[in-house]
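Complex record, three chains
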Amino acid sequence: MKALNIVSSAYRATSEEQDDTVVWFVHTLRNAGADVEILLRGNSVNYAVAEQRADPMALGAVVQKNPPRPAEDLARFMEQGGRVFAVSDDLAARGIDATELVAGVRLVGRAALAALYDRYDRVWAW
Amino acid sequence: MSDYFLIESRDPFECADVHAQCELALGLSQAGHRVRMFLVQNGVLPARRGARANGLSALLNAGIPVLADEQSLRERGIRPAALVDGINPAPLELVVDALAAGSRVLWH
Amino acid sequence: MGAKTLTFALMDAPYESARTATALRLVDLALRRGIHVNVFAYEGAAALTFARQSQHPNATHGRDVESEDHPLTHRWIEALLAFAESRGVKLDWINCGMCVDERGVGETIPGVRRGGPPDFFKLALESFNTLVIATR
């Protein structure tokens, strides 16, 4: 069963989770052998921007060890053979140029989403 | 060709992303898939006749059935007679029907 | 032909979103139709079955604890579990274990279990269909 996982929300609780929890979830599935891929849409296309750096949370004397690194997580997912798509219209709407993205992200226009969905047994919208 | 049952739980007044879902519905329909849109929760708000122009008209014009959860309508005081022409109230059971029929059910 | 099975993935914490009530309505409707249901409760939804939720009065409405009878999501889910059993259909409720741990909601009602993302995928593989109701 091949499943496309659509990520829409972005930067929701990523500080305290140290991950985007949907990207993490799909990555975990892939690590367990599931044939899963990721489509970034809406604000989550920003996860593919290579130069992003969340500051570690520093509250009182406590400093976070592992701040979230969504772009690196996507890069690692792709290194392990998982494909990551991003909706090009959503990137353009946010003024993000393709050259700013981590290598390997495949762009797909909104008009091509129907054809993309067809390639999967399941489409899950997270 | 697949059967898509798109659930829209959000409204275009608070969520700019709703228009993208309408575009998706149109794109899937144009690609030859059967598409239905089911409005639930605040997703029923634009179904009130007189609500500012939104993507639902485009769906109806394209022949895509647009249904609105009866309970969500009652909760918001939207009578069936006050719905945009072409939008019909429907029970939430339709979601279970769609799942049980093997439709691709996507929640937004 | 045996009854179908549907899997739902939920993410919302209790008392934060209309999605919770709608999702539980869908589970109820599926069970009433004789459909077996799996629920994978991820993130905030892992707190839906927390046994230590407790009721409170509502002074603004002049109601004491008993008359307010404030809903507790764990009681709603207990009701669904009991209903499923009475109908001879299965409701398998799995809480994401890490989500439970980080929220400290490990004290759950009986009849639910812990799991992880691979359990969700296994449930999805074995189900006729799956609906993800994500949070925002």
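Note: Strands of chain B lie at 3-8, 34-39, 66-69, 87-90, 104-107.
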